Amino acid sequence: MREGFNSNRWTRRTAAVGGAALSALVLGQIALTGPVAAVPGLTYKTSTGPSNSAAKSQSAPCPTGTTVIGGGGAITGSGLGQVGMDIMRPLIGGDAYSVTGREDETGVAGNWAVTANAVCAPAPAGLVMVSGSSAPSFGTSNWFEKPCPAGKHAIGVGGAVVGASNSEVVLEDLRINQTSVVVAGAEDGTGFAGSWWLDATAICADPLPGEQRVINDSLYSSATTRSVVATCPSGRVHGVGGEILGGDGQVRLTEMRATTSTTVTVSAVEDEDGFSSNWKVRAYAVCAS
What we know:
Elements: E1 2-3, H1 11-17, E2 25-27, E3 43-48, E4 56-61, E5 67-77, E6 83-90, E7 96-103, E8 112-121, E9 128-134, E10 141-147, E11 153-162, E12 169-176, E13 180-187, E14 197-205, E15 212-217, E16 225-231, E17 236-245, E18 251-260, E19 263-270, E20 280-288
Parallel strand pairs: 1-9
Antiparallel strand pairs: 2-15, 3-8, 4-7, 5-8, 5-18, 6-7, 6-11, 9-14, 10-13, 11-14, 12-13, 12-17, 15-20, 16-19, 17-20, 18-19
């Protein structure tokens, strides 16, 4: 079922661009009584596919007895500004996290590979995955928010841009708020004549022990590449999110994943023509201890 949409520039996101860069801001800490312990059996799985110049998907499966509670991925190789991670989400059933990479309409001469990363654990209390889709958009950008059921917190996010046959629409944002996720996309620098929409998946659960949301921003300027790390002040990474601010479809995510048990790295690169305006990337880490 497709839900409401906003075909105008995401004003909340644009307004945030003008502000100063955040520095390891910790949001939404939960105070719980009783013993505090990490979600038992938490593991991080990585799977890298072949290096070539074809559109491809890669999945990182979770061990038997565990399920996906978060995930992300990366693109490595040639032509990174022309290759989009257009689909990043848990598979139906929650046994793996999948990432799909596609080249833009002009293609890339060199080879590139997709890496998928999954955060896996035995299902925490109240775990549920909820999904939705925006209405089709003919605008240059769009965003869609999917809330968790009442009383639950978002601990993981998945998203996709749908409608183009190649990466002419950029998946810019996979944001984890406390009780919802937000997915945003924008047409690339050459635009897209057809309609497109966004899919969003929120991985939700009861509040985790010692739960915190850590947000960190890169510098805000015009640079070919940007990267930033969000670090858990305590506990371990349970959920992963990231976004591009100010990219206007001319910057693509190349990495959004847990790079250690306590860090989330988000990186992006300008397209092949460069981008004269200022932009930055933001990393989200959902931590629990």
